[in-house]
């Protein structure tokens, strides 16, 4: 069973209390977006075998959205953090790279970290 800690209320919630919201840190485009940008926002997603950054909602708790870093193959959770951040915290990236040195994060403006 997947258990994530809500960074807002501190509750360790199992997956029955949560709602998955897909990939984290997607750049959203407004009405001025080109067809290619809007298509990319709607349909282009990472689907990695390994560490992935995701959005989750503590639906049956505080109701807030947050981000989580977890491995899609082992369900190992590396950490959770506020949904208001534009990138994963440096401490979390270091924790992931300690166990998975070859892991990189796709920044939606260009380079990986």
Automatic annotation (TrEMBL):
Superkingdom as given in the UniProt entry: Bacteria
Pfam families per UniProt: SoxD
InterPro entries cross-referenced by the UniProt entry: SoxD, SoxD_sf
GO terms assigned for molecular function: sarcosine oxidase activity
Record GO biological process: tetrahydrofolate metabolic process
Record-given protein name: Sarcosine oxidase, delta subunit family
Species name: Octadecabacter temperatus
């Amino acid at each position: 069973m997947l258990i994530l800690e809500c960074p807002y209320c501190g509750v360790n919630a199992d997956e029955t209390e949560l709602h998955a919201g897909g990939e984290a840190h997607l750049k959203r485009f407004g009405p001025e977006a080109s067809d290619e940008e809007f298509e990319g926002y709607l349909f282009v997603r990472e689907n990695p075998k390994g560490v992935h950054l995701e959005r989750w909602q503590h639906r049956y708790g505080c109701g807030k959205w947050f981000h989580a870093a977890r491995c899609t193959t082992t369900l190992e959770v590396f950490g959770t953090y506020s949904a208001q951040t534009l990138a994963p915290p440096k401490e979390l990236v270091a924790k992931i790279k300690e166990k998975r040195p070859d892991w990189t994060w796709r920044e939606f403006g260009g380079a990986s970290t």
